[in-house]
Each structure stands twice: as structure tokens, then as C-alpha cells.
Design a protein that fits this description.
The chain has 130 residues and is mainly beta. Helix content is 8%, strand content 25%.
Length: 130
């Protein structure tokens, strides 16, 4: 058991990428695998930003960044990370909420969000982009 005292600071969540509250009350809990992310690209400040496009790895059921060039399940977009999550390289797996349906303002997504035409096609019928 680890009873080490830790201090954490939290910023204000930026969900300006949401175009409406539709779907925000029905997010699904998923597990993120930090080993699938690149710190410099996905969480340069130790925080994976909400709005990032995620995908499920078929073999493990864990989630990582959407990447249409892979062939392990990460080439199929599953939705957007709903809450920002603190992450570090080599850190533990993290629980997180996934927005699977709703309305998204594409221009407000965070840097390195991963959304491309193929991801939009994967999410068509579930998420509307404006």
C-alpha cells in the first residue's frame, strides 16, 4: 500500500469543442493505456486534453490515440476523450470518459486531436461535426 502524500493542482476543463450538451450525460468509461501515447505529441504538459480522438486496441480492449495508419484497432475512431486526464510516460493505466455521440466544433478541438476524414467517417451517425 502506498500512503505517500501527493499534491496535485487542477486547471479549468476546456470543453469549448462541444457544440451542445447532447451526449455529455451518457459518456462511457474506458481505460487508457499510456504506453500507446507519445508524450511530446499527446500530453506534452502531462495532460491528455479533452477532445482527443481515441480508438480501442482490439487485442487488449484498452484505448489509445486514433491512428488510421495502424492495423490493431487504433485505425477505427471510437469517440472523443471527454475529460482531460493527467498522464506520464510509463504511468499506470487511467480510467476516462469517452464521448461516443453528440455535436463537436472541429475548430475548437485541442492541438494534435487526431481528427481526420477517416475518423469522421468512422464516427458518422454518432457525432456531428460543425
Amino acid at each position: 500500500m502506498d500512503i505517500t502524500v501527493r499534491t496535485e493542482s487542477f486547471g479549468v476543463e476546456d470543453r469549448s469543442w462541444l457544440a451542445s450538451a447532447h451526449g455529455a450525460d451518457a459518456t462511457r468509461t474506458i481505460t487508457l493505456d499510456p504506453a500507446l501515447f507519445t508524450a511530446a505529441t499527446h500530453f506534452p504538459n502531462g495532460v491528455l486534453k479533452s477532445g482527443t480522438v481515441l480508438a480501442r486496441v482490439t487485442a487488449t480492449g484498452l484505448y489509445g490515440p486514433y491512428n488510421n495508419a495502424l492495423a490493431n484497432g487504433q485505425e477505427v475512431a471510437a469517440g472523443h476523450l471527454f475529460n482531460s486526464v493527467r498522464m506520464k510516460t510509463g504511468g499506470p493505466k487511467r480510467g476516462a470518459p469517452l464521448l461516443e455521440h453528440g455535436f463537436v466544433l472541429e475548430s475548437k478541438l485541442p492541438a494534435n486531436h487526431g481528427l481526420d476524414a477517416a475518423a469522421k467517417a468512422d464516427l458518422a451517425g454518432w457525432i456531428k461535426y460543425r
